[in-house]
Task: structure prediction
Amino acid sequence: MRIQAQISMVFHLDKCIGCHTCSIACKNIWTDRQGAEYMWWNNVETKPGTGYPTQWEDQTRYRGGWEKKGDRLKLRMNSRLGALGNIYYNPHLPTLDDYYEPWSYEYDNLFSAPAGDDQPTAHPISQITGKPIEIQAGPNWDDDLSGSPVYAANDPNLADLSDEDRAMLFEIERLVFFYLPRICNHCLNAGCAAACPSGAIYKRGEDGIVLVDQEKCRGWRMCITGCPYKKVYYNWSTGKSEKCILCYPRLETGQAPACFHSCVGRIRYLGVLLYDADRVTEAAAVDDRALVGAQRAILMDPFDPQVIAAARANGVPDGMIEAAQKSPVYRFVKEWQLALPLHPEFRTVPMLFYVPPMLPVQATLSDGHVNLAAGEDDPVALFGSIEQARVPLAYMARLFSAGNTDEIVRVYRKLLAVRVYRRAQSAGDVPPAEAVRILADAGLTPDSAEAIFKLTATPTFEDRFVIPPMAREVSIESVIDPLTHKQGAGFGFRQDARRGQ
Result:
C-alpha cells in the first residue's frame, strides 16, 4: 500500500447556472495572451451537445485515453514506439475549426472612421492572422441550444439510446438541457503524460497536480491526442503545450483556484483524497461496468490508522492528512457515493467528479390540473420518477459511469430521498416515517441526509474548499510514468526524484 495525496474536485451540476463566470476568471488570469486566445482551460458546455472542441468525446475520431488489450492497458492513439512514426505528423489532432478561430474587433474604426451618413462599425478580425473574419463558431457556440436537435443530435453520448429515448428527448414538450463545466481532471493514469515523447508532462508527487514543463516541451502535441478530454492545448506563438495548472500558485498561498473562487452557483468543492498508488493501473484495467467501483476502492479512508501510517511512511505531511479528513470531496465521492467521474471508460482515472443533475419534474397538464408522473399520493412523485427523467438514464450513464445505469440509479435514489426527507421537514406534506423509510431504502440515514443537505445547500466557503498546506519545502518533483507509476519520462529516460527543491 503506497499512499499518496491528490488535490481533487467535485462539481454539483444541480447548482450550475451556466453563467461562464468561471471561464472568464480563468481566461483573464491564464490565457489572455498571444497564442492562447482560443484556449479555455475552464469551459462550460451545454448537454446534450457536441462540446468544445467539437465532439471531443468521440475517441474513434480523436483516439484519446487508454484501451484494454487483454489484461493490459495501451494508449488508444498508438504505442510509445508507434508514436515515433507520427512524431512529425499526428492525424488525430483537433483542428482549429474544431475549436474555433479566435477573433476580436476593429474598435479603432469606431473612433478613426471619417465623417459620414452611416454609423461606423467594429468589424471582426482574426486574432491569429489579423485579417477580417466571418464568425462561424465559438467556445460556447451551442450554448443553450444543445438541447435542440440542431446540436444535440450529434452528441456522441446518444449512441446507446434507443429510438424511443431519442424521440422522447427531442419532443418539444420534454426539451431540456443542463450545464457541464470542465477543467483538466489531473488524472491518476494521465494519458497526456504517457503520450509525451519528451517527458515534459509530470504529476507533482505531493499533490497530484499535472503540469507541463515548458523547458522540456518540444511541441510534438502527442499530449493533445493522448488526453481524451482535450484539456491540453498547443500555443501557436510559443510552440509549447499548455494546460490547466489548477491555480497552484493560489493553492500554495491558501486560496481557491480562480474558477472555484468566482463560481456564482457555488457548485465547486475542493479537497484532498488519499489513494493507493500501487492499485491505480489495476483499477483502470477492470471491465467498463466495474470502473466506478474500482476507482472508489483505491480511495482510502483518511481516518484509518493503517492508512495514516502508510501515508506518513510515504512522505505525506500531517497537514495533508488532516485536510483529507475534512475533505468535502471524500464525503461526496467515497462516503456518500454521490459524485461520479466523467467518462471513466477513458481509463485515465480522473480526479474530478460530478454530482449528476436531478432534472426538472416531468408532468402533464389536463383539465387545468398538473398530473405528476408517479401519482399524487406517492411522496417520490413530488419530484418526478427516476425512470421518467427528462434525460434518459442511459445518457447519464454514458457520461458518468461507462454505461452502468445501476450506478446512476443508486445516485438518483439518494438525491431523491434527501429531497423527500427535507420536504417532510419544510412542507410537512410527507409523513416523517415515510421519509425515513425512503432514506433507508436508498442507503442513507437522517444524519447523513442532513449532512448532504448542509454541504449542498448551505455550505460556507470553508466547507467547500479545504485547502491543505502545500509543503513545497518537501516537494517531490518527479515524472511519474503512468504505465508503472514509478519515476520515469518519455521513452524510458529516467529522472530521479529531487527533494528540497
User: Anything to note?
Assistant: The radius of gyration is 24 Å. The first strand starts at residue 3 and ends at 12.
